[in-house]
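Sharing in case it's useful to others searching the archive later.

Someone asked me privately for the predicted structure of GNAT family N-acetyltransferase, so I'm posting the question and my answer publicly. Question first, with the sequence:
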Amino acid sequence: MITTRQGVRVLGPADLDEFLALVARDPVVNVFVDHRARTTRLQPRWLGGEMWGLYADGELSAACHVAANLVPVGADAPAARAFAAYAPSRVRSVSTIVGPQVPVDTFWSNVAARWGSPREVRFGQPHLEIRTDPLVAPDPLVRRTVPSDLDAVYPACVAMYTEEVGVSPERGGGADLYRARVTQLISRGWSFARFDETGRVVFKAEVACASPYAAQVQGVWVAPDRRGQGLATAGMAAVVEQVRRDVAPVVSLYVNEWNASARAAYERVGFVETARFTTVML
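And my answer, the predicted structure tokens:
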């Protein structure tokens, strides 16, 4: 394996074991990059970007996933500054910077003048996890979705994304790509929903990524006319129960600090805060 004693370089398949050892220092917080590394083997053509590694005295001390999402791994503020200094030498593909608050805030403060005004910055997002059975009874009507559910699940996914991000995932001709992503999650068994008597989705959530250690949940959504009825709490309890049984032993997610109702629902289920994230949308 080629190494450099100091500085940043692009990692490749030969670095996979060393990279996974770095990720394993905090495998729940790092579940996204762990998933990406295991599924792509750090092959750039499958990553759709690059994985940067920071070396100190010949050892990998931090890393940075750089594709559509830029995600620091095991990075402190000095490491984040090193990645920011390296960034101008590479082709930029990033549309979102997300991860632990200190390295993301530091990286962004060092590239903001070059990268322009963001669409939105979300500071202090609680990163939550649960390692036990849920504290409340799971909703027995929440189940894994199947391919025949796609036409009901897809509009709910579009509604959630538009509400959360502020733009539709179908904007600019993105409908086919987004529908393919929803189809992929269903086919993996990573999509969960409750349907009402008409077949409409009234609660949903998905597993975004998973490793042998953890699964990260995304896209939690309740139909607007059914909010305040406890569907999110019981629904998430059902998701936690099924994901811990069938996917990974720890369930994690991160939530906007201002979303008091969601945070309260997750707390009732048994999630606890273990870190803070920042998300920069470009």
